[in-house]
Specification:
The protein is of the alpha/beta class and 551 residues long. It has a domain at 37-357 and 446-458 and 517-551: Alkaline Phosphatase, subunit A, CATH 3.40.720. 28% of the residues lie in helices and 15% in strands. The chain has 15 helices and 16 strands. The strands form three sheets. It has a ten-stranded mixed β-sheet with strand order 8-7-4-3-9-1-10-11-2-12, sandwiched between helices. Strands 13-14-15-16 form a four-stranded antiparallel β-sheet, covered by helices on one side. Helix 2 (55-63) packs parallel to helix 12 (434-441) and helix 5 (190-204) packs parallel to helix 7 (245-270). The longest helix is centred in the middle third of the chain and has 26 residues, at 245-270. The relative contact order is 0.18.
């Protein structure tokens, strides 16, 4: 009786910190979040491409919920900050460009991250792959931001075989096992490392505890100048139907990522964990197409590329899969933003989301994802970057674009459109893939007829008639992205009242923005001072004498 009384006294305390207490105490769902790097809208089969084989991703997408109006930010670091905090990047100073390895900063330590919340619910949290939210000091790295383990890299990219990151005319090894440099992984393909580490974490996980596994791929980001598209030769050789060699190597990188998804699904099923899992797949930003960043993604037929605020830069390839979703096997046209994952996944895990900070940009859409109802989200701030002079905002079906990046150099429509012929789409590969085989046994994979209908609904078709021109460097533009997702027709002249309303709303957002936290590069962070490794140089500051000797 005394023990019961003590437990009852503890309930208000647990509720106050956000932990929902249930008398039945069901095990919260396992959460697997798979983040691709620089994946384009048109690089996956479930959006209509028949060029690159992605059967494992497609099998999950068709048996889950394809998110056709899902948005991220236009570039890497801001999206990862938004995912981990549930906040728009303007509200934590992460809105401008990416985090460089020699910058003395990271995602502010005042922010509480998704794994820190999940830890309160008893989750074991692991990250495999890319971090890119700071390593200036150890306090910024995953093991001190809520994760129990990390095998992967800290900077924004690296070569997938030799694991060196070339950045700002410097280079160093960037592959870590916790805090230690993982020299033993040299020469091992990063996507294979991520696959094997993810499977190992699943295989050793105590099934009585909930798992949060953050699978943050380095693919399909371009690598270093001496080899922008590293991929195993035998994988490249299997894709000879893709004539452009750059696109073929990009495809090989993506195929390896897709294969890793199949291995993760098999591992979850073998442990009996899949039936109580939520799997989210997302890209961090739109694809770098047509040679942007020396890469060869495709956002066709959307306009723009990575690091632009056009739909091609911010509308993301993504889906959610779970047996906990009542209305699955559908294409969702619900408006969802990457900031929504924190409150949504916490709600699914049993967290008391009323205890979350009030300044979140994200909203809980778990119920709507489960039952297909329209989400409450009616606006998305895509970004405000006062340094580059660009901003974009969507309210309902209207999108405002004010300014642009690169002086408009990347504001067009880029292929490769690739093979989109239904006759070239390999349906049998979906069924026979490791993921398809598992989902078939669970009676979750839809029939081929249903797959084709879902694929057709998830494929954006545009005429690409460039009618009323938009010159965002001269004046703001207005688009109806529900009717015109390819942003062909600038309606600013036809709807001046709506344009003015959007500009006022954008100013209201900007009034709440923090200054960008970017810092000048610190020479003490140069890998040459640390055995040619990217290092926590803020913890071990070099003496002025060493710097003087370097001059």
């Amino acid at each position: 009786m005394a023990a019961t009384k003590g437990y009852l006294l503890l309930i208000p305390i647990l509720t106050a910190i956000g932990v929902l207490v249930s008398s039945q105490n069901p095990t919260p769902p396992n959460i697997i979040f798979i983040l691709a790097d620089d994946l384009g809208w048109n690089d996956v089969g479930f959006h209509g491409s028949a060029q690159i084989p992605t059967p494992n991703l497609d099998a999950l997408a068709y048996s889950g919920v394809i998110l056709n109006r899902y948005y991220v930010t236009p570039i890497c670091t801001p999206s990862r900050a938004a995912l981990m905090t549930g906040k728009y990047p303007i509200h934590n100073g992460m809105q401008h460009a990416v985090l460089y390895g020699m910058e003395p900063r990271g995602l502010p330590l005042t922010e509480k991250l998704l794994p820190e919340y999940l830890r309160e619910l008893g989750y074991k949290n692991h990250i495999v792959g890319k971090w890119h939210l700071g390593h200036y000091t150890r306090k910024y790295t995953p093991l001190q931001r809520g994760f129990d383990s990390h095998v992967g890299f800290w900077t924004g990219h690296h070569h997938l075989f030799d694991h060196t990151a070339v950045e700002t005319q410097t280079w160093g090894i960037d592959m870590r096992r916790g805090y230690d440099v993982a020299y033993d992984l040299h020469g091992k393909y990063t996507t294979h490392v991520i696959r094997e580490e993810a499977v190992a974490r699943i295989s050793s996980h105590p099934v009585s505890d909930p798992l949060f596994l953050y699978v943050a791929h380095g693919a399909v980001h371009s690598a270093n100048p001496y080899d922008f598209h590293p991929a195993p030769d035998d994988t490249v050789d299997k894709l000879t139907s893709i004539n452009d060699y750059r696109r073929r190597k990009f495809a090989a990188m993506l195929k390896e990522l897709d294969d890793s998804v199949g291995a993760i699904i098999k591992a979850l099923k073998s442990r009996g964990m899949l039936e109580n899992s939520i799997i989210v797949f997302s890209t961090d930003n739109g694809g770098p197409a047509n040679g942007f960043n020396d890469n060869w993604a495709s956002n066709w037929p959307l306009r723009g590329v990575k690091n632009t605020l056009w739909e091609g830069g911010v509308r993301a390839a993504g889906f959610i899969w779970s047996p906990l979703i009542e209305e699955s096997r559908r294409v969702s046209h619900q408006t969802i933003h990457i900031t929504d994952w924190l409150p949504t996944l916490l709600k699914a895990a049993g967290y008391n989301i009323t205890a979350l900070p009030r300044d979140l940009g994200g909203i809980n859409v778990w119920k709507q994802l489960q039952n297909g109802d329209r989400t409450e989200r009616n606006q998305i701030l895509h970004n405000i970057d006062d340094i580059w002079g660009s901003a974009a905002l969507t309210v309902n079906n209207w999108k405002l674009l004010k300014g642009t990046n690169y002086n408009g150099q990347w504001d067009q429509w880029y292929g490769p459109a690739g093979d989109r012929d239904i006759k070239s789409y390999n349906l049998s590969a979906i069924t026979s893939s490791p993921t398809g085989t598992v989902l078939n046994a669970m009676k979750m994979l839809p029939s081929q007829d249903v797959i084709l209908k879902l694929r057709e609904e998830a494929t954006i078709q545009c005429t690409n008639e460039k009618r009323n021109g938009c010159k965002p460097l001269e004046k703001p533009c207005l688009f109806d992205v529900e009717r015109d997702p390819c942003e062909n027709e600038n309606l600013a002249g036809q709807y001046p009242e709506i344009l003015e309303m959007m500009l006022v709303k954008l100013d209201e957002y900007n009034a709440t923005a923090l200054p960008p936290g970017n810092q000048p590069l610190d020479r003490r962070g140069d890998p040459k001072f640390w055995g040619y490794t990217w290092h926590n140089f803020g913890d071990d500051l070099l003496t002025p004498k060493i710097l003087q000797n370097d001059e």
